[in-house]
Amino acid sequence: MLRSEWTKLRSVRSTLWTLLTAVALMVGFGVLLTAVSKDMGEEVGPADALMFSLSGSPFASLAVASLGVLVISGEYRTGMIRTTLLAVPGRLRMLAAKVAVFTAVALTVSLVASFAAFLAGQAVLGDAGIALGDPGALRAVVGSALLITASGIFGLALGALIRHTPGATVAAIALIFVLPQMTNMLPGAWGEAVREHFTTNAGDQVTRIDIMDGQLGPWTGFGVYCAWIAVALAAAAVLLRRRDA
Known about the structure:
Order of helices and strands: HHHHHHHHHHH
Strand content: under 5%
Number of helices: 11
Structural class: mainly alpha
Radius of gyration: 19 Å
Largest sheet: none
Helix content: over 70%
C-alpha cells in the first residue's frame, strides 16, 4: 500500500510543481521581507530576524495543503478511487497509507524549505541576523516545517471529507489562512480564547521565540492545531467507511 501511494504521488506532475511552489514561496518571502527591512534601516531584534526569514510559512502551508487535498480528491474526480478500494478493501488502511506517504514527503520538503529560508534570510541580514544555536531558533525552524506539514495533512483530511477539489481547497484556505485572521475581530475574553485556539493561530506559536505571558506555549499551541487535524481525520475516516466510492 505504501509503495502504491508513493507511486501515485510521485507520478502526478502537480506534486512536483506544488512542492517547488511551496519551497519558492517559503524562501522567496523570507528573503524579500528581510531585504526590505534591512533597506529601511529598521533595528532588527532576534525575534524579528526569525519572523522575517520564516514569513513565507503561511503561503507554503497553503501550497502543501492544496497538495494534500489533491492526494485524495483527485482520485474521486477521476474515478480512480474505485480501483484503489478494489485493490485495498480496508479503507482505513488505505487512508493511513496516504497520510503516511504524504507526511514523509511533505515533512522532508518542508524541512529543506524552512532551513533554506532561515539561512537565506540571515545571510541577507548579515551581522543583524541570528544563528541556529541561538535560544529558540532551531525549534522555530523545525516548528515551521512541522506547521507546513500539519497543514498539508489538514488539507488531505478535508479532501477526504469533502471529496471535491475546489470545495476542499476553499475550505483549507479558509481554515488555515482566512478565518484565523478574522478571529482578531472577535470581542471580549471569549474572542481572545477562540483566537488563541483557532487552527494556525495556535499552531503558529511553534515558530515564535517571543511568547508573551498568557499565550499558549510553542508545543501546546502546535498540539492544539494537531487536535483540529485529528478531529478532521477522524471525521474523514468515519465517512470513508460509511459512504460509497
